Amino acid sequence: MNVSITLDRQLPQHAPTPETPSKRHAASSLSRRRQSALLSSKHPRRGERAGVRGERQGELIMRSRFSDLESSGDLRSPAKQLSRDSTSAHGDALRAEGLLPLAKSCLILLLLLIALPTRADDRHHHPHPPTPARDLLNEIDTIQSPSSTAQEVANPPRSLPHRWRLLQLFWPVLLTAAALAIAGSIAGLFVLLRGEALVALAMPQVVAIGVAIGLRMGWPTLPPAMVASAAGLMFFVAAKRRGAGHWVLPSLYVAGLSFSFLIIASHGLDVTELQGMFVGVDVAVSVQRALLAAPILLLTGIIVAALWRRWLVLAQAPAAAELAGLHPARQDALFLSLLTTILLLGTDSLGVVMALALLFLPAAAVLPWFRRIPDAMIAAAALGVALTFGGFELSNAFDWPFSQSVGGLGFVIVALSHLAARWRT
Predict the structure, then answer these.
(1) Closest to 99 in 3D by CA, of 398, 306, 387, 370
(2) Is the distance from CB of 218 to CB of 128 less than 8 angstroms?
(3) Which of 86, 87, 90, 364 has its CA 20 to 30 A from that of 175?
(4) Distance CA 321, CA 335 (A)
């Protein structure tokens, strides 16, 4: 007894160490994990319910981010840094699929308007495809003949009467180019935001295959171009769903450049006309083509602008858009169809250079200066129209090609815009 007592007395009595809050939190979290694992092992349904609740919470978080991104329309802030104070009323209106059937019906109407009047006009005027460039250039030659020297002396080249005469002569070209500038600059914003510039570069080459087939067979060029662009679009959409879009677009680009000239290799005059379409030196649009293409381009631009929230969400937060029930694959196909319509009409009417210049350059110039999509769309459309008339003035003042004048002026504005934006920051 005495020995045990002495041993107890010799042992040091340590006071219990107080647990820190971090240790208590770690122990409590560890105990919760153990309890949840034990519950899930004993009761599998409870574990499944807990997993479902976690998935639902994640889905609610992604939907709130989706509604914040959609309602704010901010171009610079990523989806994960958006504020939670914005309302989700726009998100509910966007998730209601009210505009999608309207967009599909308008797209079908666009295709019908393109196909039917063109064939009727071509049958009425010529059994072979019309050549508006040659007719218009002949008309210019007659106006600038030596018999009109007295009028040129009375009206200098930069006087208002001379410019009015040019506007009266070239109004179909300017009307079509202005409509292409509005529709192309609006669509070009989302092409750049989505990172799909190669799509816009490849589709005009595919359109050229249809144009070459029309020239070779003596048909109107627009219906074969429609068929070729639709086939290329369906092939690209199917390949993109399978994850093969990285090699399809370069292949389509090379195929368009190659087959378009191989189809008409033995027709010298058709080769010259196709080269003019690619280079864009002689831009001429007939009155019938202008009255057909301009309304369709404007309607396509309005549809793209009306659905801007969809394109923005798909570009910045595709996972949130999928959780919100937007079906990204369908929306992607719809956007590519609208983009193909713009490029089809622009390429077939004004050439590849003009279509690409008015698609990329206005959007690239305004993106550093605007934070919201509606403001950027308005500024890009206004800049596109200004580039059209500015390039027309330069082409007449210095005897430059119209398409290259628009492209060169647009590139200078893009370079100055980005330099000024970098200097400002």
Answers:
(1) 306
(2) yes
(3) 364
(4) 15
Q: Which residues contact 271 (CB under 8 A, 6 or more apart)?
A: 261, 264, 265
Q: Mean pLDDT over residues 298-321, rounded? A: 88
Domains and CATH numbers, the chain: 96-141+160-424 (1.10.3470.10)
Residue 94 host element (H or E) = helix 89-95
Helix ranges, 195-221 (H): 197-217
Q: What is the pLDDT of residue 175?
A: 95
Residues 6 or more apart whose CB falls under 8 angstroms from that of 281 comprise 401, 403, 404
Per DSSP, what are the bridge partners of residue 372? Answer: 74
Q: Would the pLDDT of 93 be above 80?
A: no
Q: Which of 339, 384, 323, 121 is nearest to 233 (CA)?
A: 339
User: Is 134's pLDDT higher than 50?
Assistant: no
- One-letter amino acid identity for 98? G
Percentage, residues of the chain above pLDDT 90:
38
Cβ atoms of 281 and 401 within 8 Å: the answer is yes
Task: Determine what percent of the chain is predicted with pLDDT higher than 70.
Answer: 62
Q: Tokens 């029309």 correspond to what residue?
A: 214
